[in-house]
Structure formats: C-alpha cells, structure tokens
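Long-time lurker. I teach an intro course on protein structure, and each term I like to show students one example going from raw sequence to a predicted 3D structure in token notation. This year I'd like something fresh instead of my usual example. Would anyone be willing to generate the tokens for the chain below so I can use it in lecture? Attribution to the forum is fine with me.
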Amino acid sequence: MTDHETLLRDAQEGLNEIVKPYQVEINRQQRMANFIKSCMRCAARNDFLQLDELLKTKLARDILEETGIEESGDIFEGLREYADEQVDRYRMEFIEDLTDKAREAALEMTIDFPRFESLKGIEGQIDFFNRTTTINKKLLKSIDPRRIVTALLRVKKQLYDRPYDPRTFIDGLYGIYNNILKQENLPPGAKVTAQRLYLEYVISFQSKPFFQDMDKGRFRGYSGDQFNVDLWRYLQAGIGGTSDGRILRMTPGRISALWLIDSDGEKRRITSISFEEKED
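-- Reply from a regular --
Happy to contribute to a lecture. Here you go:
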C-alpha cells in the first residue's frame, strides 16, 4: 500500500469517527420531529386514541426535557388532558367500535368486557386504565380497536391459517406417545404427562442440523398455543381417533399440567394424556 493510499484510508476512518456523534444527533432530532408530526396528524383528525398512546411514550418525556422547547410543555400537557378525557368518554362506545372493527375484518369475536374471545385458543383482556390489551398473554400497548383487531388477525394467522390435517396431527402425536412408552417401559394405554408429550412433540420437529448445532436460528418453534389449537381442531374434526383406532384421553389435574381445551370447548389444566383402545 502506498503512502497516499494509507493517508486516504486513515483519513476515511478518522472522518467516520468524527461524523458518528453528529449522525446520532441528526437521527435523534429526526425521531423527535417525526413524533411531533405524528401528534399534529392525530390532533388534526381527532385520533385521541393514537394521541393518548403517543403522549405516554418515553420519546414524549424526552421532548419535554429537551433544552430550548420547554414552552412545549403546556401544549403537550393540554393535549394529554384532552386525550385522557376523550378516552374516558370513549369507554361507553368501545365495545361497539371493537365489535364493528372485528366484523369488518370477518373475525369471530365475543366480548364480555374487559375480557374477549375470538376463535378457540385466542383470548384477551382490556386494561383501560393502563391503556393496554393482553392477547394470549402477550401485551399490546394499545386499546385502539384497529390495533387490537390487527393483532388478533396476526394471532389467527399463526394458529389457524397453517396447513393442518387432523389425521396427520393425531397420528404424529400418537407416534411420539408410543416412543415415550418404549423409553419408560410403560404398557400400552399408560398415561404420560402432558408437558412431556408436548416437549417430545416439539423435539420431533427439529432437523438433524439442529441437533448438531443447537443455534436458536435453527430451532423450529411450536408454541403452546399452537399445540392447544391443533388439539382442539382434532377434537372438532370428529375423525374418531388415530388411524389404528386409538382414542385420545386427557386427564385434568395440577401436577405437570398444561392449559388445554377439552372436548367440551372448556379450558382446563390437563396433567396427563393417553391413547386408549376404542371401546366396542
């Protein structure tokens, strides 16, 4: 490498270090500008739900502390009081609005405020005070019906809009069950813990490369919610059991239990699962 090439390389690296703090500051100011513009748009269309969410973010607090714009405090405080008041009034209309948004999206939904259910295995709860919604134990920092329905559709896609065949599912689960019986030297029809069966079923999805290098990027996930819904869909299919006539039995209890939907559509703590011969 020539002296000139070395000089230019070193200069480029040095200038890159010099520009970094400026770029960080530009990006920070751009985020603040975008935030303020979002507040302006919400105010213009009286979107008090989105405005309420924006004003409760860390970025809103950072802007109020920004040197040189302390006078904005009165503006933001006025908007915050207005949004709070409008959200409190909106509580009476919320159920109707959420129902309408679900209907527009062709999404099944039953509301017993503050709780709600969609398809089996999809449920949630509204926390108006904290402006949050919980869907299958995952927190959504919003009570906006549009965002709630969008989140529900995402969960529905994950749980129901996948290739699924009840016979393939139950035969596969039965195969895992039989492997456990052999490992534990248990007789046919013996009960195995629901947690053990679920664990072994998830392991059966993993590829050979995963077992050689158990990097999380190689792991094929299969959530408890997916397992729950797949069991429910099997129970609803009415196919009568496995290909060789074995019937799934779920035993309720508390030890090593999973919350699963039973054949009556009720969510119960299931402690063990077995496959038994069909009674004549």
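Some talking points for your students: The chain has a mean pLDDT of 87. The radius of gyration is 27 Å.
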